[in-house]
Design a protein that fits this description.
G_patch_dom
Length: 92
């Protein structure tokens, strides 16, 4: 800047009205990212919400999960082979 006419102790700008003091630089040494003024950095970890599944049918829980995750619903086949004779198959 000296090559452009600036002299030590003068301010910057057309009429030398700019700041005379150098700009202070604050180096970040942590890895927490930038935080705006008035904003407080949070060290809290968010825990997932655990739903109470007591009393719900397992298929209902599975269907809710599929809807939430936007997965296609599973194909269920109920097979009953508790007694003699051919097993019965029911499709839902």
């Amino acid at each position: 800047m000296r090559k452009m006419g600036w002299k030590e102790g003068e301010g910057l700008g057309r009429n030398n009205e700019g700041n005379v003091n150098p700009i202070l630089v604050d180096f970040k040494t942590d890895r927490k990212g930038l935080v705006a003024d008035g904003e407080k950095a949070s060290n809290k970890l968010t825990m997932p919400v655990i739903k109470d599944l007591s009393g719900k049918h397992p298929i209902s829980v599975l269907m809710e999960l599929c809807n939430k995750k936007k997965w296609s619903p599973p194909d269920f086949t109920l097979v009953d082979d508790t007694g003699p004779g051919p097993p019965q198959t029911l499709s839902f």
